[in-house]
From TrEMBL:
Protein's organism: Halomarina salina
Organism lineage: Archaea, Methanobacteriati, Methanobacteriota, Stenosarchaea group, Halobacteria
Protein's name in the database: DUF7344 domain-containing protein
Membrane-spanning parts: none
Entry-linked InterPro entries: DUF7344, WH-like_DNA-bd_sf
Residue span(s) of domain DUF7344: 19-92
Coiled coil: none
One Pfam family per UniProt: DUF7344
Region annotation (Disordered) ranges: 113-137
Length: 137
């Protein structure tokens, strides 16, 4: 996949991104990385994902989460060009390609489809005004 993605990219490129982002945890990883400066470590990501689990959810097993992130989710996000993994430093960061995607909603602190810490969307939503023209009969 290239450095950027546009509406003119092939349907296969978009299908692959949709497949990757269909997993809620991967969207939460991108959201957690968006909130960091200079990236973070896998252990810090595990802690962040565990502490921000939606209220009422059973806290995830951190060892299992670390394994799934390290061996499934992060390699897949890296292959798609959405994260950079530095094996020497152990740091993971969001790429410019991920930042350019229309992933982040108008919610003040959230990613589309990613509940905030309370598990509910923020009531403070600032979206552009939309003009809807009514059809006349």
């Amino acid at each position: 996949m290239g450095d950027t993605i546009t509406a003119t990219d092939s349907p296969e490129v978009w299908d692959e991104l949709y497949r990757i982002l269909a997993v809620h945890r991967r969207r939460r990883v991108l959201d957690a990385l968006r909130r960091t400066t200079g990236g973070t470590t896998v252990d810090e990501l595990v802690a962040r994902l565990a502490e921000t689990a939606a209220s009422g959810d059973t806290p995830p097993d951190r060892t299992q989460l670390r394994l799934e992130l390290s061996h499934v989710d992060l390699p897949m996000l890296d292959e798609a060009g959405l994260v950079d993994r530095n094996p020497e430093s152990g740091r993971v960061s969001l790429t410019g390609r991920a930042r350019a995607l229309p992933l982040f909603s108008a919610l003040q602190n959230g990613l589309v489809g990613t509940p905030l810490r309370t598990g509910r969307p923020s009531a403070d939503v600032s979206t552009p005004d939309t003009i809807v023209e009514e059809e006349s009969d």
